[in-house]
Amino acid sequence: MARLRQIFILTLPVLFFIFAVWLIFKRVQSGHTEELETLLREKNFKALSEEVIRRLESEDMNRPRLLMYGSIATLVDPTLPDFLVILQKEDSTQIFLREVFIRLVNLQGESGRLLIWLQRYLELQNSTALEPGSLDFWLSAIEKDSKLELQSIPDFPNFIHRLTKIWPSLAFETTGKDVQIRETPGLTGLVQAKLAKGQIVFCRLKGPEEEIFGKRGSWRYCITEDRIQGWLFDSYLKNKGEK
Questions:
Q1: Alpha-carbon Rg of the chain, whole angstroms?
Q2: Which residues are CB-contacts of 73 (< 8 A; sequence separation ≥ 6)?
Q3: What is the assigned CATH class of domain 170-239?
Q4: What pLDDT sits at residue 52?
Q5: Rounded distance, CA 70 to CA 49, Å?
Q6: Is the pLDDT of residue 197 over 50?
Q7: Residue 125, φ and ψ in degrees, nearest 5
Q8: In sequence order, what are the residues at sequence separation of 6 or more whose Cβ sits closer than 8 angstroms to the Cβ of residue 78?
Q9: What is the distance in angstroms between the CA of the first residue and the CA of the last residue of the chain?
Q10: List of residues 6+ apart from 194 with CB closer than 8 A
Protein backbone atom coordinates (compact mmCIF):
# COMPACT_ATOMS: atom_id res chain seq x y z
CA MET A 1 0.00 0.00 0.00
CA ALA A 2 2.84 2.34 0.92
CA ARG A 3 4.54 1.54 -2.40
CA LEU A 4 1.37 2.41 -4.35
CA ARG A 5 1.14 5.70 -2.50
CA GLN A 6 4.77 6.43 -3.34
CA ILE A 7 4.19 5.65 -7.04
CA PHE A 8 1.13 7.90 -7.07
CA ILE A 9 3.08 10.76 -5.47
CA LEU A 10 5.89 10.35 -8.01
CA THR A 11 3.53 10.26 -11.01
CA LEU A 12 1.37 13.16 -9.84
CA PRO A 13 3.64 15.89 -11.33
CA VAL A 14 3.70 14.01 -14.65
CA LEU A 15 -0.11 13.78 -14.69
CA PHE A 16 -0.37 17.45 -13.81
CA PHE A 17 2.03 18.34 -16.64
CA ILE A 18 0.02 16.27 -19.16
CA PHE A 19 -3.20 17.95 -18.01
CA ALA A 20 -1.62 21.41 -18.30
CA VAL A 21 -0.41 20.68 -21.84
CA TRP A 22 -3.88 19.40 -22.79
CA LEU A 23 -5.50 22.52 -21.33
CA ILE A 24 -3.14 24.81 -23.24
CA PHE A 25 -3.84 22.85 -26.43
CA LYS A 26 -7.61 23.21 -25.95
CA ARG A 27 -7.28 26.95 -25.37
CA VAL A 28 -5.15 27.34 -28.47
CA GLN A 29 -7.69 25.35 -30.49
CA SER A 30 -10.50 27.47 -29.08
CA GLY A 31 -8.63 30.60 -30.08
CA HIS A 32 -8.08 29.20 -33.55
CA THR A 33 -11.79 28.64 -34.10
CA GLU A 34 -12.97 31.85 -32.41
CA GLU A 35 -12.16 34.05 -35.42
CA LEU A 36 -13.84 31.56 -37.78
CA GLU A 37 -16.93 31.45 -35.57
CA THR A 38 -17.06 35.26 -35.55
CA LEU A 39 -16.93 35.42 -39.35
CA LEU A 40 -19.64 32.76 -39.49
CA ARG A 41 -21.94 34.66 -37.09
CA GLU A 42 -21.38 37.85 -39.08
CA LYS A 43 -22.17 35.90 -42.29
CA ASN A 44 -18.98 37.24 -43.84
CA PHE A 45 -18.56 34.17 -46.03
CA LYS A 46 -15.96 35.62 -48.42
CA ALA A 47 -13.65 36.48 -45.52
CA LEU A 48 -14.36 33.08 -43.98
CA SER A 49 -13.36 31.34 -47.21
CA GLU A 50 -10.15 33.39 -47.47
CA GLU A 51 -9.25 32.62 -43.85
CA VAL A 52 -9.78 28.90 -44.45
CA ILE A 53 -7.45 29.02 -47.48
CA ARG A 54 -4.79 30.84 -45.45
CA ARG A 55 -5.00 28.32 -42.62
CA LEU A 56 -4.96 25.33 -44.95
CA GLU A 57 -1.61 26.56 -46.23
CA SER A 58 -0.20 26.94 -42.71
CA GLU A 59 -1.99 23.83 -41.35
CA ASP A 60 -2.51 25.45 -37.96
CA MET A 61 -5.59 23.46 -36.91
CA ASN A 62 -7.60 20.29 -37.50
CA ARG A 63 -7.91 20.00 -41.30
CA PRO A 64 -11.41 18.41 -41.58
CA ARG A 65 -12.85 20.93 -39.12
CA LEU A 66 -11.23 23.75 -41.08
CA LEU A 67 -12.77 22.39 -44.28
CA MET A 68 -16.13 22.31 -42.51
CA TYR A 69 -16.06 26.11 -42.13
CA GLY A 70 -15.04 26.50 -45.76
CA SER A 71 -17.83 24.18 -46.90
CA ILE A 72 -20.46 26.31 -45.18
CA ALA A 73 -19.18 29.32 -47.13
CA THR A 74 -19.25 27.26 -50.35
CA LEU A 75 -22.91 26.33 -49.93
CA VAL A 76 -23.99 29.91 -49.25
CA ASP A 77 -21.95 31.38 -52.10
CA PRO A 78 -21.22 28.92 -54.94
CA THR A 79 -18.72 31.38 -56.48
CA LEU A 80 -16.31 30.65 -53.60
CA PRO A 81 -13.88 27.69 -53.72
CA ASP A 82 -15.62 24.31 -53.38
CA PHE A 83 -14.33 22.99 -50.06
CA LEU A 84 -17.01 20.30 -49.99
CA VAL A 85 -15.22 18.34 -52.70
CA ILE A 86 -12.03 18.38 -50.61
CA LEU A 87 -13.86 17.56 -47.37
CA GLN A 88 -15.47 14.53 -48.98
CA LYS A 89 -12.02 12.94 -49.38
CA GLU A 90 -10.99 13.44 -45.75
CA ASP A 91 -11.20 11.02 -42.82
CA SER A 92 -14.21 11.50 -40.53
CA THR A 93 -16.08 12.89 -43.55
CA GLN A 94 -19.56 11.86 -42.38
CA ILE A 95 -19.26 13.58 -39.01
CA PHE A 96 -18.15 16.89 -40.50
CA LEU A 97 -20.49 16.74 -43.50
CA ARG A 98 -23.44 16.35 -41.15
CA GLU A 99 -22.24 19.29 -39.07
CA VAL A 100 -21.79 21.45 -42.19
CA PHE A 101 -25.44 21.13 -43.16
CA ILE A 102 -26.88 21.28 -39.65
CA ARG A 103 -25.00 24.49 -38.87
CA LEU A 104 -25.80 25.98 -42.25
CA VAL A 105 -29.55 25.36 -41.94
CA ASN A 106 -29.63 26.73 -38.39
CA LEU A 107 -27.62 29.77 -39.47
CA GLN A 108 -29.63 30.67 -42.55
CA GLY A 109 -33.13 29.75 -41.32
CA GLU A 110 -35.82 30.27 -43.96
CA SER A 111 -33.53 31.05 -46.86
CA GLY A 112 -35.40 29.22 -49.62
CA ARG A 113 -32.32 27.15 -50.45
CA LEU A 114 -33.10 24.01 -48.45
CA LEU A 115 -33.82 21.80 -51.46
CA ILE A 116 -30.65 23.02 -53.19
CA TRP A 117 -28.60 22.08 -50.13
CA LEU A 118 -30.43 18.78 -49.77
CA GLN A 119 -29.59 17.91 -53.37
CA ARG A 120 -25.90 18.62 -52.70
CA TYR A 121 -26.06 16.56 -49.53
CA LEU A 122 -27.55 13.61 -51.43
CA GLU A 123 -24.86 13.90 -54.09
CA LEU A 124 -22.16 13.73 -51.43
CA GLN A 125 -23.81 10.78 -49.71
CA ASN A 126 -24.24 9.06 -53.09
CA SER A 127 -27.21 7.14 -51.69
CA THR A 128 -30.89 7.53 -50.89
CA ALA A 129 -30.46 5.35 -47.80
CA LEU A 130 -29.95 8.13 -45.25
CA GLU A 131 -30.04 7.54 -41.52
CA PRO A 132 -33.46 8.27 -39.86
CA GLY A 133 -32.08 11.18 -37.84
CA SER A 134 -30.86 12.85 -41.02
CA LEU A 135 -34.25 12.38 -42.71
CA ASP A 136 -36.07 13.91 -39.76
CA PHE A 137 -33.69 16.87 -39.73
CA TRP A 138 -34.12 17.59 -43.44
CA LEU A 139 -37.88 17.16 -43.50
CA SER A 140 -38.32 19.41 -40.47
CA ALA A 141 -36.15 22.09 -42.11
CA ILE A 142 -37.96 21.86 -45.47
CA GLU A 143 -41.37 22.18 -43.82
CA LYS A 144 -40.28 25.39 -42.08
CA ASP A 145 -38.91 26.99 -45.24
CA SER A 146 -41.80 28.93 -46.74
CA LYS A 147 -40.17 29.94 -50.05
CA LEU A 148 -38.24 27.08 -51.60
CA GLU A 149 -36.06 28.04 -54.57
CA LEU A 150 -36.47 25.46 -57.32
CA GLN A 151 -35.06 27.10 -60.44
CA SER A 152 -31.42 26.48 -59.47
CA ILE A 153 -31.88 22.71 -59.19
CA PRO A 154 -30.82 20.87 -62.38
CA ASP A 155 -32.74 17.80 -63.60
CA PHE A 156 -35.59 18.64 -61.24
CA PRO A 157 -37.93 15.74 -62.22
CA ASN A 158 -35.20 13.27 -61.27
CA PHE A 159 -34.63 15.11 -58.00
CA ILE A 160 -38.35 14.97 -57.12
CA HIS A 161 -38.32 11.27 -58.00
CA ARG A 162 -35.45 10.80 -55.56
CA LEU A 163 -37.30 12.68 -52.81
CA THR A 164 -40.32 10.42 -53.27
CA LYS A 165 -38.00 7.42 -52.83
CA ILE A 166 -36.63 8.86 -49.59
CA TRP A 167 -40.04 9.94 -48.20
CA PRO A 168 -42.61 7.58 -49.81
CA SER A 169 -45.30 8.78 -47.39
CA LEU A 170 -45.04 12.25 -49.00
CA ALA A 171 -45.19 11.01 -52.60
CA PHE A 172 -48.60 11.28 -54.27
CA GLU A 173 -50.13 11.01 -57.71
CA THR A 174 -53.24 12.75 -58.94
CA THR A 175 -56.36 10.59 -59.38
CA GLY A 176 -58.51 12.95 -61.43
CA LYS A 177 -58.28 15.12 -64.53
CA ASP A 178 -57.46 18.82 -64.34
CA VAL A 179 -56.68 18.71 -60.61
CA GLN A 180 -56.22 22.33 -59.56
CA ILE A 181 -53.14 23.45 -57.67
CA ARG A 182 -53.82 26.74 -55.87
CA GLU A 183 -51.72 29.56 -54.50
CA THR A 184 -53.42 29.36 -51.09
CA PRO A 185 -55.51 26.59 -49.47
CA GLY A 186 -59.25 26.74 -50.14
CA LEU A 187 -61.45 27.26 -53.19
CA THR A 188 -60.75 31.00 -53.15
CA GLY A 189 -57.05 30.41 -53.81
CA LEU A 190 -55.78 31.46 -57.23
CA VAL A 191 -55.45 28.46 -59.58
CA GLN A 192 -51.80 28.21 -60.65
CA ALA A 193 -52.09 25.13 -62.84
CA LYS A 194 -54.25 22.12 -63.66
CA LEU A 195 -52.57 18.75 -63.27
CA ALA A 196 -53.22 15.71 -65.45
CA LYS A 197 -54.22 12.36 -64.00
CA GLY A 198 -51.29 10.30 -62.71
CA GLN A 199 -48.95 13.26 -62.20
CA ILE A 200 -46.43 12.77 -59.37
CA VAL A 201 -46.22 15.42 -56.64
CA PHE A 202 -44.13 15.75 -53.47
CA CYS A 203 -46.32 17.07 -50.64
CA ARG A 204 -44.48 18.52 -47.67
CA LEU A 205 -47.22 20.14 -45.56
CA LYS A 206 -50.75 19.12 -44.58
CA GLY A 207 -53.50 21.52 -43.54
CA PRO A 208 -56.66 20.87 -41.48
CA GLU A 209 -59.34 18.51 -42.77
CA GLU A 210 -62.53 19.89 -44.35
CA GLU A 211 -65.35 18.90 -46.70
CA ILE A 212 -65.54 20.19 -50.29
CA PHE A 213 -68.25 19.12 -52.75
CA GLY A 214 -69.15 16.22 -50.46
CA LYS A 215 -65.56 14.94 -50.21
CA ARG A 216 -63.55 15.08 -47.00
CA GLY A 217 -59.87 15.81 -47.23
CA SER A 218 -57.02 18.17 -46.39
CA TRP A 219 -55.14 20.77 -48.36
CA ARG A 220 -51.50 19.79 -48.89
CA TYR A 221 -48.64 22.01 -49.98
CA CYS A 222 -47.06 20.22 -52.93
CA ILE A 223 -44.28 20.53 -55.49
CA THR A 224 -44.70 19.18 -59.01
CA GLU A 225 -42.07 17.87 -61.41
CA ASP A 226 -42.58 21.12 -63.36
CA ARG A 227 -41.41 23.16 -60.32
CA ILE A 228 -44.91 24.41 -59.51
CA GLN A 229 -45.56 24.92 -55.79
CA GLY A 230 -49.05 25.21 -54.35
CA TRP A 231 -51.96 23.64 -52.50
CA LEU A 232 -53.82 20.51 -53.63
CA PHE A 233 -56.94 18.99 -52.06
CA ASP A 234 -55.87 15.47 -51.19
CA SER A 235 -59.17 13.75 -51.96
CA TYR A 236 -57.83 13.94 -55.54
CA LEU A 237 -54.48 12.44 -54.53
CA LYS A 238 -53.35 8.90 -53.86
CA ASN A 239 -50.23 8.00 -51.93
CA LYS A 240 -47.86 6.12 -54.22
CA GLY A 241 -47.39 3.45 -51.57
CA GLU A 242 -51.11 2.60 -51.62
CA LYS A 243 -52.49 -0.19 -53.82
A1: 25
A2: 45, 46, 48, 49, 52, 80, 83
A3: mainly beta
A4: 92
A5: 5
A6: yes
A7: -75, -30
A8: none
A9: 75
A10: 178, 179, 180, 181
Phi, psi of 189 (to 5 degrees): -70, 140
C-alpha span between 12 and 135 (Å, rounded): 48
Residue 136 contacts by C-beta under 8 Å, 6 or more apart in sequence?
Answer: none
Q: Which residues contact 170 (CB under 8 A, 6 or more apart)?
A: 139, 163, 164, 202, 203, 204
Query: Which among 232, 116, 103 has a CA at the least distance from the CA of 174?
Result: 232
What local confidence, expressed as pLDDT, does residue 151 receive? Answer: 86
Mean pLDDT (whole number) for 27-42: 73
- Please write the tens of the pLDDT for every residue from 150-172: 888 888 999 998 888 888 989 99
Identify whether the C-beta of residue 170 lies closer than 8 Å to the C-beta of residue 209: no
Task: Please indicate whether residue 110 or residue 216 has the higher confidence score (pLDDT).
Answer: 216
Measured distance CA(186)–CA(201) in Å, rounded: 18
At residue 219 the predicted structure's pLDDT band, cuts being 50, 70 and 90, is: very high
pLDDT exceeds 90 at position 38: yes
User: Domain coordinates of the chain in residue numbers?
Assistant: 31-144, 170-239
Q: Helix 2-41 crosses helix 45-58 at what angle (to 10 degrees)? A: 140
